[in-house]
Design a protein that fits this description.
The protein is an alpha/beta fold. The chain has helices spanning 17-29, 44-52, 58-76, 81-107, 111-135, 162-177, 205-216, 249-257, 268-274, 328-338, 371-378, 405-412, 436-451, and strands at residues 5-9, 33-38, 140-142, 182-186, 189-191, 197-199, 220-225, 246-248, 278-282, 290-294, 303-318, 343-348, 352-358, 382-396, 418-423, 429-435. Strands 3-4-2-1-7-9-10-8 form an eight-stranded mixed β-sheet, with helices on both faces. Strands 12-13-11-14-16-15 form a six-stranded antiparallel β-sheet. The longest helix is centred in the N-terminal third of the chain and has 27 residues, at 81-107. The model has no long low-confidence stretch (mean pLDDT 93). Bound molecules: aspartic acid (ASP) and magnesium ion.
Length: 455
Amino acid sequence: MNQLDIAKFGGTSVANYESMASCVKVVTANPHTRLVVVSACAGVTNILVEIASGALNRAEVTDRIAKLREIHQQITAQLAPEVQAKCNDHLEEHLNEIKNLAAEAMMGRSDELTDRIVCHGELLSSYLIVEVFKKMGFAAEFFDVRRIMRTDSEFGCAKPLVEVLGFLTQQHLLPLLDKEPIIVTQGFIGANTEGMTTTLGRGGSDYSAALLGEACNAATISIWTDVPGVYTTDPRLVPHAMPIEELTYLEAAEMATFGAKILHPSTLVPAVRRNIPVFVGSSKEPEKGGTWVKPETKTYPSFRAVALRKNQTLIVLVSPKMVGASGFLANVFSIFAKYGKSVDLVSTSEVSIAVTLDAGSNTSGIPTLSEEMLNELRQFCHVKVENKLSLVAIIGNNMSSTAGLTTKAFDALKPYAVRMICYGASNHNLCFLLNEDEAVPALVALHQHLLEHEE
Ligand code: ASP
Ligand code: MG
């Protein structure tokens, strides 16, 4: 088993029958790929989140359920008649369940109910891709990941209980991986110790794959998506973006944290714990190769990539009492900690602190900046909250120890109003906070200045 590869396919990779067939080809081309982890078909989680919001009326729910039927029936339509009938029956069972849960959501939404609704996306895609494997002549078996993916009860962004997962994997999953059929399971979803369904937060399937990789002690984790690897920036925003052959864990983690959509930010944590190399490639064009994320790389360029993260909230806290006083930062951070808010950037002056927070990756998509927390902060300082900001980050190596690096970045950003800068804490990044509408042009300019020319 020590050569084991785990292959994770994202929503666009399992969007329809043809895409699923490409996944099957990718999996079966590598004899070491024994475990397959899938996301919901493209668009499905968004629809389910909408249903779970409780904000739709009866007619709208019916419309969304019809849409879900259509997405999945496109796949079942390609299967042999008797398999098709079985799959359509299975689909109807799920849709019926979703309909019942939607009625519950209309009476009042909750994160717990949201997870019970959204899990159907991954359950359906994994069920159907097993049939695509079979149709193409390969033995494959469905495995409900909730049997092993134990999490806490923080619905919508549950934390895995890594030790329990390891133990349950040994008991229930590893014995299956030695046998013939390829095992297909779900990303994103899990269950708490009471057996209630949880989710790891939007985009969490990558994280699931990495956690399973760790639990199985896999040799490699392959994240198959719709782009051939990690690029120097998002190619949809900057057409000159170039593929990157290899990245260190540190660089990739910075990229994920700062908004490169390619990997869920937590993905690398389990891989790093076990030193498992992670491959990122396109399931539609596997021949194009991809990016390896590894402990070490051949080169360590100053500038490796630029990334953009939207939906940033800036909180400026001003307290005249801060002059010469101690404990103000500790107070502020203990309040953030109490409300479970993780602070990204921090900048301080004599009487004020500016911090940025992310609007959050909770499955429900509802920002979690509570009035209660703000009131607590207001008790000892003036609080100003600003939204509609974006973070642009430069990712590279030896950034805070190489002379002259910042000049190039500041030159590129000359036309833009930079709201906040963070530099010095990490050798791997330099971050700028900008107004939302200036962020993309700033990203383009940075890419051009730092990555399209020689270093
Ligand atoms: N289906 C989930 C989502 O859309 C998880 C994932 O795709 O990784 O967020
Ligand atoms: Mg995804």
